[in-house]
Every structure is written in C-alpha cells, then in structure tokens.
Amino acid sequence: MTDLDLAFSPVHDLAAAIRGRRLSPVDLVEALLERIAAHDEKLHSFVTVYGEDARLAAQAAEKAIRAGHAVGPLHGIPVALKDIIDLEGRVTTGGSLALKDRVSTVTATLAKKLIAAGMIVIGKTHSVEFAMGGWGTNQHMGTPWNPWDGAVHRAPGGSSAGTGVAVAAGLAPWGLGTDTGGSVRLPSSWCGLTGLKTTVGRVSCYGVLPLASTLDTPGPMARCVEDAALLYNAMQGPDPLDPMTRGVRFADPLPQMKRGIAGLKLAVMPQGEREGVDAEVLAAFDASLEALRELGATLEEISLPLPFAAMGGMTGRIIGAEGYHFVGDLVDNMDLPIDEAVRPRIWIGRDMTARAYLDTLKKREEVKREYDAVLAGYDALLTPSTATAAPAVESIDQATTPAIFTRAVNLLDRCALSLPNGFTAGGLPTSLHIVCDAYDEAMALRIGWAYEQATGWNARRPPL
Questions:
Q1: Which of 417, 390, 4, 9 is nearest to 184 (CA)?
Q2: What is the tally of structural domains in the chain?
Q3: Domain-located, residue 329
Q4: Is 183 one of the catalytic residues?
Q5: Exposure letters 378-405 (e unless 16+ CB within 10 A, then b)
Q6: pLDDT band with cut points at 50, 70 and 90 for residue 260
Q7: Are 280 and 430 in contact (CB under 8 A)?
Q8: Residue 289: CA atoms inside 13 Å, Cβ hemisphere, count?
Q9: Burial environment of residue 344 by CB neighbours within 10 A (0 to 12, 13 to 18, 19 or more)
Q10: Which structural domain, as residue segments, surrounds residue 391?
Q11: Gap between the Cα atoms of 366 and 195, Å rounded
Q12: Of 31, 157, 363, 413, which one's alpha carbon is 20 to 30 angstroms from that of 304?
C-alpha cells in the first residue's frame, strides 16, 4: 500500500490486511504520524498527538499478532478521540483553555473498550469549548480548518470539529465524537464523513465530560458506513458506571446491514421545511430520494407535529440548563478565558427558572409521543443533515445554529446517520440525514449502507 492508501483505505480493509499480515500496524501508524506532521499545522485538528506511545503500541500489536495473540479483528488500528473523553493521566481540556491543566483521573469506559479491542489512540482532537456549539469554532484553542477548501477557512462543524477534520483529511482512519444537538452529524456533514448519532444509553458516557446528561451521546465518525458500524460495535454496551445504559443490550447491526432496503417505508420531511435550505443541498437531497426509490424503498412526504426549528429551540434550552449546571462556575468567572460565543449559550441556563426547565422536559415528552404516532409504520425519516455546505468561518453569525435538522433528533431521543450525498459546484460535501427509532441504529446503518453502495459519494478525497 502507498501512504495515500494507508491514509484513506477503509478500516475494514486495513484490519483485514493486518490480520493477513500484509500490513504492519507499525507502518500504518508511521504513515499517519507523517501525515499529521505534514498537514496538521494548518488543519489544526489535534490538540495532542501521542506519537511515541502510538509507535510503542503499534510495535506491541505487531508482535502480538505475529505470535498469534491478536485480541480481536481491530487490533493495531489507530483511532482519534475528541478532547472531552478522559484518559487517566492525560490532559483533557473539554475544548477550554481554562481547563488546559486538567489531568484526567479516570479512563472513559468507551476508551477502555477501544483499547481492549487492540486499537491505538493516536491523539486527542479539538472540540468547541465545553462541546457547546455546532459551527466548530474555538476562540482560544483555535478552529480546525475544513480540508475541503485549502484557500478559504471554512467551518469544520462542531462540536466534534477536530475529529471531523482529522478523519476527512486522512490523519486518522476513524474517530470518536459526541452528539448532544448534532455534534457528530454536523462535522460529518461538512467534512464529508459518515457519523452515527446513537441513542442515549447505547454507549456509556462515563468518563466523557458532560454537557447535557439528558441528551449526550457518543458516536463514531468514519469514511464509510461499514467502518461506522464496526466502531459503533466496539463502543456500545451496558456499563455499571453509567446508569443510562442499564437495560440497553448490545445489538450488532452487521448481520442485517447488507440486506438491502427493498420494501422499506421512508418518511420525507414536508415542503415547508425546505425553506431556507441551500439550492445545491436540496438538489442533492432530491437526488438521494430518487436513489432510494430505485433501491426499492417507498417514500412518502409527511406532516410534522412540530417544526424542526421549534424542536431545536427546546433542545437548546435543555442543553443550556444542564450545561450551566456543569460549567456555570467557569462561565460566570469573567477572569477566565471563556469563548465569547459559548458563554451566552451556557447562560441560557443561568437565566432559566426550575419551572421553565421542567416545563420544557414535560413538553419534550408530549412532542416525542406525537412524533411516535406520526412516524409509526415508517422505517426512517429523511432530511438533509445541514441546510448549507460549510460556510466561511468569517461569515458565521455565532448567535445562530447550523443544527436545524439535527437538534430535533436529540429532543426526540432517536438515532440518526449522516453520510455524504453529493458535492456543491465549489467541491464542498453535502449530506443525507437518516433518522430512525430509538435503539434502531441497525436500521439507519442498513439504509445508509445501501445508499452508499449505490452512489459512492464517500470515496472522494479532499484536495490537500
């Protein structure tokens, strides 16, 4: 394999080559570290690169595999972690300069799972401060550079901005993000990746810095659906340290992922939700609908009980209230270097009464029941992931959010998959958003895999 092959080959191919001893984990890690050294000064995707430790882990993996002691099919595969995921003894900043010296005292359960599967943590990636924002910007720690435009600094999407950029640019084969209002799906949309928003409780949040415990969900970010499914499998499962996972059983999506979608019934967002969506995004969305019809699915436009914008506002209030509980002391301290765009988002919670917060939670349950009734009998709801392709950073209005379609999914406590569905005339990715029932990640991956195989949009590489 060439260095480009090592950087952009699907993980399931890399893993097969390692198992077959046609590829050394040492060579794979070295190729990625060389790409990081060559490109990340501009891309700014990593907060910290664990270069020497990754090399040592790769050497150990190579020896174990050669001796017949592979711990699993993903032994020797590198992975990038968002910098809100604790690794004991390592600094985890949560994207905040105010926490630049915070040393983790625990290792997150999901990180333990990946390491136990033989994966090699290559580094920590940049986050929006406290994971509170969808644009991917960070005033004090720096905003990653979307690799699809080398001339204009475009938004990477947030809050899992660094993971999105690192994986899209071939600096890591896949990585982890978290999603409270769209923070896996937004960077996946703008960076041309496949990102899975899991259902609350499907993946443990123990050792992940919280933003809103009611809504927080870790998820995989990868360059194809099969890789997203493999990483999701490695992450999921109950954890006694996270009560939200109690009773949520492991559910492998792989057995049904390649069954096709003939006969499935898919709901399409109504015409009214197309207002304000960019014409090129809508054109890609309409082409996606046609491709799914050709694959044998039945598509029907539906009416929504509550518009996406209204649901997004409710989600924002929940995030603000719960976020203020966790980081209010930091945000209220005007002597600390807190992002000027993030501070007012958290202050939503400071100014909210307990009654208003509980009223929002009650209304949420009502909306969930209304949507359950409307979507009963459908296998998925389809929307674009974002209303536009990645905007220039200098054009962003920080008082707004790009999470128009994504926040609703968190409010409804459903799962969703975002994956590439085209490119603008300027070469920027667009994205399809597949929303499924709670705990039916397998269906989202199944629909996404069929669409990906029929279209192949995920195969394009950014022009680094």
A1: 417
A2: 1
A3: no
A4: yes
A5: bbbbbbbbbbbbbbebeebeeeebbbbb
A6: very high
A7: yes
A8: 17
A9: middle
A10: 79-304+374-459
A11: 28
A12: 157
Give the DSSP per-residue string, 356-414.
HHHHHHHHHHHHHHHHHHHHTT-SEEEEES-SSSPPBGGG--TTS-S-TTTHHHHHHT-
41 inside domain = no
Q: Give the per-residue pLDDT at 171.
A: 98
Contact of 230 with 194, CB cutoff 8 Å? no
Percent of the chain with pLDDT over 70: 100
Confidence check: pLDDT of 203 > 90: yes
Q: Put the strands of the sheet holding 298-301 in their side by side order.
A: 46-49, 120-125, 78-82, 175-179, 217-222, 194-197, 415-423, 429-436, 380-384, 265-268, 298-301
At residue 130 the predicted structure's pLDDT band, cuts being 50, 70 and 90, is very high
Report yes or no on 157 lying in a domain.
yes
pLDDT at 343: 98
Say what the pLDDT of residue 1 is: 80
DSSP for 259-326, written as a single string? S--TT-EEEE--GGGGTT--HHHHHHHHHHHHHHHHTT-EEEE---SS-HHHHHHHHHHHHHHHHHHH
pLDDT at position 390 is 98
Residue in 9, 24, 82, 160 annotated catalytic: 82
In the set 96, 159, 160, 288, the catalytic residue is 159
State yes or no: is 362 an active-site residue: no
Dihedral, CA atoms, 90, 94, 95, 100, nearest 10 degrees? Answer: -50
Let me know if 418 is a catalytic residue. no
Please give the span between the terminal C-alpha atoms of the chain, in angstroms, as a whole number.
Answer: 19
Whether 232 is covered by a domain: the verdict is yes
Mean pLDDT of 381-410: 98
Cβ atoms of 57 and 82 within 8 Å: the answer is no
Catalytic-labelled residue, pool 96, 183, 188, 385: 183
| For range 197-226, the mean pLDDT | 98
The model's pTM: 0.98
State the average pLDDT over residues 132-151: 98
Angle at 348 between CA 201 and CA 154, to 5 degrees: 75
CATH number at residue 97: 3.90.1300.10
pLDDT at 71: 97
